[in-house]
Amino acid sequence: MEIELLLKGLWTRDGAGVRLYRVFGDPTLAELTDPFLLLDHFGSRYPHEYLAGFPWHPHRGIQTITYLLKGEVHHEDSEGNRGVLGPGDLQWMNAGSGIFHSEMPRPYRQDPEISGFQLWVNLPRAKKMSDPFYKNLKSGSMPKLRTDEGATVRLISGRLREPGTGVVEGPVKELPIPVIYMDVEVPAGVEFAFEVEEGWRTLVYNFGGPAVVQKKRIEDKSLVIMSTDGGVLTVRGPARFLLLSGRPIGEPIAWRGPIVMNTWEEIRQAFLDLERGTFIKKRASVEDI
After folding, report:
1. Are strands 36-44 and 54-59 parallel, antiparallel or unpaired?
2. Helix, strand, coil percentages, rounded to 5, for the chain
3. DSSP-based three-state secondary structure for 197
4. Does 155 score more than 90 pLDDT?
5. Strand 36-44 to 18-24 pairing
6. CA–CA gap between residue 72 and residue 103 (Å, rounded)
7. φ/ψ (deg, to 5) at 75
8. How distant, in Å, are the alpha carbons of 3, 35, 164, 262, 264 from that of 229?
9. In this model, does residue 244 exceed pLDDT 90?
10. 99 pairs with which residues across the strands?
11. DSSP codes of every residue in 201-269
């Protein structure tokens, strides 16, 4: 398994002016990161940089996964589903046929700092118009595993073997497409190793300072795109990173704003549905994990 490409993101603003670091999220790169479409790393100690949030907006044809490290995110959709993500919480949202919602970052208690990630995962043609759902994972329900070598893994989805326990499966499962999502911390002098299945696309987003991936030094806030030939991924600490892996969908992508479909005719139909008030096909189900 080799490094195929290294990418640096860019600082930008989204929503109503929220300052964030866009790790990747460009239609021209979507084939290379397939099935992953976008990753935003948001964070600030200054409320004026995030309080305007992400007011009402639609999604169709994708999954969005919001993982919070610090602060709160208040979520509400047009069908009356609402809730609050706190530090360490995660929401896995399948927009499917359509969700219209808002996401509003807020300070947690007296701490003004907010920090977290939003990942977009594509859906295959057969599931673009699937029923929407939320899977809400509280921090206390997220397994925190320790490898033989001493790395700590917060396991969201996928499987990992823990010494003395055996194979542990992440609590977010029964997804439209199988995806591995882990938050990994590796102490100095320790190496984390993970075997990736052949044909899967694996991404490593390093956000805890410089690290060594496949014996190559990687700067902070860098994305490593691995080849799809399978094998063992190694990361030497000190490091903290997100590990993402999934089998590429390999279908055409038509992407406009928060809606991702297979054809431009489907994009046109989505915006017609918004204009006509027929965008929402079914109320999203909610599962608290």
Report:
1. unpaired
2. 10, 55, 35
3. coil
4. yes
5. antiparallel
6. 10
7. -115, 140
8. 11, 16, 30, 26, 32
9. yes
10. 59
11. EEEEEE-SS-EEETTEEE-TTEEEEEPSS-EEEEEEBSEEEEEEEE-------EEETTEEESSHHHHHH
The reported pLDDT for the residue numbered 164 is 86
The sign of the CA dihedral 20, 64, 70, 181 is negative
Mean pLDDT, to the nearest integer, of 65-92?
A: 97
Domains of the chain: 9-141+268-281 (2.60.120.10), 143-250 (2.60.120.10)
**Contact present, 134 and 170 (Cβ < 8 Å):** no
| 14 Rama sector, left if φ>0, alpha if ψ -120 to 50, beta otherwise | beta
Question: What DSSP letter does each residue of 55-116 carry, written as one string?
Answer: EEEEEBSEEEEEEEEESEEEEEETTS-EEEE-TT-EEEEE-TT-EEEEEEEE-BTTB--EEE
CA–CA distance, 6 with 150 (Å, rounded to integer) = 26
97 vs 274: CA distance, rounded Å? 12
User: Which token pair is 241?
Assistant: 């990173």
For 76-79, the CB contacts below 8 A with 24+ separation are: 76/101, 76/102, 77/101, 77/102, 77/284, 78/280, 79/280, 79/283, 79/284
* Residue with tokens 């989204």, as numbered in its chain: 14
The predicted structure's pLDDT at residue 35: 98
User: Do the Cβ atoms of 143 and 183 come closer than 8 Å?
Assistant: no
Segment 112-129, tens digit of pLDDT: 999 999 999 999 999 999
Residue 215 clears pLDDT 90, i.e. is over it: yes
Q: Which two tokens stand for residue 126?
A: 């057969």
Q: Which residues contact 114 (CB under 8 A, 6 or more apart)?
A: 42, 43, 44, 50, 68, 70, 71, 72, 105, 106, 107, 108
When the pLDDT of each residue in the chain is averaged and rounded to a whole number, the result is 96
pLDDT band at 93 (very low <50, low <70, confident <90, very high): very high
